[in-house]
Design goal:
homotetramer, about 350 residues, Quinone Oxidoreductase, Chain A, domain 1, 2 domains, 7-stranded mixed β-sheet, 6-stranded parallel β-sheet, 11 helices, about 30% helix
């Protein structure tokens, strides 16, 4: 089969022929219909420090996808060929303390699709049945792969408890943009998106932000204070991982407010502890999705929210370089590839 | 009256004669029976950067105290001469958004006794009736002033939700030590105190720590991992404000665990964001005491917990230099002064 | 001044001349601009068992109002003649355990305007300054009195935590109707209103219910199961106090769901304990409004939600009999009187 | 093998020979070492209405047990012959909405050991591997079966959030008695046990109750008010299911307090709705154990709490009639049978 692979320990990816996999016990073979590119895929392409420490070539990458079940391995129940599915990316062990206490998304033995095992930028993928999700049959093929990153945003917004609150989102990547739509639907009083890309801020506005702030042009702290009538924002969703955004987030958030930490950083953040203490700020780390609570919530939300404006590019897998290029240049929001 | 005062904008304090104050409308005059020295008082003594920016001499300092009501100003109800009282240090306005939504301890117009108005290291003090607390008549005079810092620890431990949990406390100051006793009484599975002073760690053990770790002699992260069977501690109470402690706290806390931020730092903390995100850690800033919920809880706890081992020194106000000296040299835990 | 009064211990009310009151210390005199009729006023009019046990004639009734400050008593700060105000109906003592722990709405010494002291169906009313609320200047005079019952609904909906949830509201009185609008604005996935009056159900639909169910025509349990895809509703707001509604609520709510108890009943409810236990249902009693958290939330919500369809009748105070009559016959939702 | 069975649809049980079962795929065969009698077993013995509607003879009953793994079926990982195990009684499906959202103890397709399939009052039992729990090797054989009912109490006490609280427990059955020990260990300010059997109240006191109240001799409401200084108890654990206890619970609990509903009743409870509403009481239904969070908590607690006083009787399986008899006459707390 055709597959997009990190074949060697260096920059770039290669479109190659790979052997079509077969499902083992408890596994399922899925014919991939569409798969979208995630920031993680960009790190692997670039072969940055994180990628070098984590990825063992040869590896087919890609983890946001949808497809049709082709074959079911031994011992699998409740799944049948023809089912229209996506998958939770985080393969939990089911036996560790975290898995057995309802927090499988923090599994101590986590394996990640397209990182620790072959991924979805290929004609076929094999995944354990336990991470399969049966898609709403109405969900378009170019939207279904986005359930995974949209689910990140759902999980983050739920932890922010936005109902009736003034919400600021730092970071205009896809997940920040999705968070605008979700916060609005879940009853935020106001949603203000802070970012750096006029194009992406515009998509954020079309998806639900009341106002957008270009952090290269205005002072987000002053603007958020003004917009919130001086009190500061009730919750911040920090989705950029930038030290500057953290500085601004802690100065923008109201007394007793909450900051959801989602964006990652490869450096330490110089962190203003005293503001956290004196203002009794809560900081809540959020990763992945609740398995499968977030998927049910995602299904409900995508039945109402049209995120197609975030799908800025759709390409055959063969044109993957064009898609990766647009993302590296921040010209795209989400790129969907068709194998 | 006799009063311990910052008379000039320089290091040190002066024991002087001051005019005995009179209670205005809504105020109460209290004859001070005992007052204890807080870390804040050390900052004011030293005249460090924070003190220089906040304190306007001449000022009588001191805010942890108990005494007897001597006179009641106009419009005060429910308080009478002879009442045995202490006071919440944080004078809230009662009219701002935070006060009107049940969070007066985060008042936007907060004034602090002994910082923004005359304090308790004197024969008499005037305080607004609204911050008075009627002490349990059984509470010894040398313990009643400690309700204020003990209350800090109560508020912090309550936010840590310690029941059944493995708890690490970083910081062997008085509040860290009190937190040991409180966490134990509120049902922690285990309480481990991390500090630097063998003397204070010993007091912590006598008050309820299961184990103490001298961070200058052992690696707290390795020890806490070992003590918790590899899983890490469920909650950390960070009461030191040290960058090293923060580093260790984030590496010691379990997946999905909580860190209560109480200790202050005048520098930025180089903060490991990725650990917060990947491990879904919650960080909860805590300051002061809930007004007056924490005082009720403090009353309940002090009816059972004997914190007298933490009162290492009791001196007449005239010997204040000896008390401050012992605290600067970390030879004392709490010093109580008698005017 | 003109005043609507329960003059004698019997059915009915009398429009009489009363002495214009003067504000004492801590009090404020308000010239009433508008006042709306509450269900409590109907009980007092009818002189039912509850009214007989609680009300001591002569008493001016009415507690939902707005007006202009006319005169300020001694010791009042932050209020001035001309201010456009309403008031929290529950006069809390400020000194009991509940008041001092942030739950003044459960004050142990509560006095209620128009029940325990003279009310607002008059040209003037005196209220303690501490319960005054400064209205948004944009808020219409016929809406401002409704902040009080609307606030009941806000408090109840907040306790229901409706974001993303399927919500059923039992009871088509004004508060059930307001709850539809609030639940929708705070992000409910769906809002289903169950009631008995086609007229009121229609108002509920115009204010935000997705579907309405006439409990005299259909089986609400079957319908709610169907609408929720078999799973049951995530939360019920029980605002009727009827035994039949409680029976249906417990059979409609999902496993692990929540029922907010707001409606009152003068009889015992035959309650299906086993369903509560086996399905781990949470039942949450809700009364009044959080003082003043709910008022801030109400201000935010009324800046966006138009509840004027619920004001079905506006009358001069002289025509009070017409207004009470319509409410007794359930022909009106809210009736606003102008003194 | 020897097995205690409901052979026919009538009162009583029969000790018979049964075929030793074999483990199917995903199952495990356990040699039973000890098994304790639960209230459910008494219902099945008596053949009451519930039993007649639920139990299909022939059925081996019993579900609280421990034993040694004898044989492992196909596809089972992480379990080996010789393991010392007990089991979660509730066999969850793993595929329904509740299971997939972290609430397997509320599974929509629940099967119960000893109720819906053969149980543990036999020499051998087959259980699905997914419900197995590996016991602490130090845990005595006569205590290990009690993890299941003790776990009920753990789950209930955790939901009560007892740290620093005044706690009343209604019901002096084994689970009420265990709850005394757990509430004490998890930091309750005070634990008061209300019951009817002097013998059982005494066991409750030996396990941690501060005071016990014989509801046939004193008025629990008056006593609980007195013990709590007039304020009422902060939380009630209702573990009796009796209408009288519910009446007393709602009148004993403080403003804003919580009642955990655990005890079952075959009749409707005449329920005082207005008290729930006016006092903003929370009622929280609790069933089973969190799978497996409660089991970890149970392990931690039983490493410290000695519940052997609750094991009042230990008998060979052959003497089952003696054990059941003592329980029917309320002369025993827990009876352990050895096959």
């Amino acid at each position: 089969m055709k597959a997009l692979m990190k074949t060697e320990a260096k920059e770039g990816l290669e479109l190659t022929e790979a052997e079509t996999p077969r499902p083992g016990p408890g596994e399922v073979l899925v014919k991939v219909k569409a798969a979208s590119i995630c920031g993680t895929d960009l790190h692997i392409y670039s072969w940055d420090e994180w990628a070098r420490s984590r990825i063992a070539p040869p590896l087919i990458i890609g983890h946001e996808f949808c497809g049709q079940v082709e074959e079911v391995g031994p011992g699998v129940e409740g799944v049948a060929p023809g089912d229209y599915v996506s998958a939770e990316t985080h393969i939990y062990c089911g036996r560790c303390y975290m898995c057995r206490t309802g927090r499988a998304h923090l599994c101590e033995e986590m394996k990640i699709i397209g990182v620790d095992r072959h991924g979805a930028f290929a004609e076929y993928i094999v995944v354990p049945a336990k991470v399969l999700w049966k898609n709403d049959p109405e969900l378009p093929v170019n939207i279904a792969p986005l359930q995974e990153p949209f689910g990140n945003a759902v999980h983050a917004v739920k932890r922010a408890e936005v109902g009736g609150k003034r919400v600021a989102i730092f970071g205009d990547g896809p997940i920040g943009i999705f968070a605008c739509a979700i916060a609005r639907r879940l009853g935020a009083k106001a949603v203000w998106l802070v970012g750096l890309s006029p194009r992406r801020l515009e998509v954020g506005k079309s998806l639900g932000a009341d106002e957008t702030l270009d952090a290269s042009a205005v002072d987000p702290v002053a603007e958020l204070r003004r917009l919130s009538g001086g009190r500061g924002v009730d919750v911040v969703l920090e989705m950029s991982g930038s030290p500057k955004a953290w500085e601004e987030a802690l100065r923008s958030v109201a007394l007793g407010g909450r900051v959801v930490a989602f964006g990652l950083s490869h450096e330490r953040i110089p962190w203003d502890l005293n503001t956290v203490v004196f203002n009794e700020i809560e900081i809540v780390g959020v990763v992945g999705r609740l398995i499968f609570e977030t998927w049910y919530e995602t299904r409900d939300l995508l039945a109402e929210i049209d995120i197609s404006p975030a799908v800025t590019d759709e390409l055959p897998l063969d044109d993957f370089e064009a898609g990766f290029g647009k993302l590296f240049r921040r010209e795209a929001v989400k790129v969907v590839l068709y194998p």
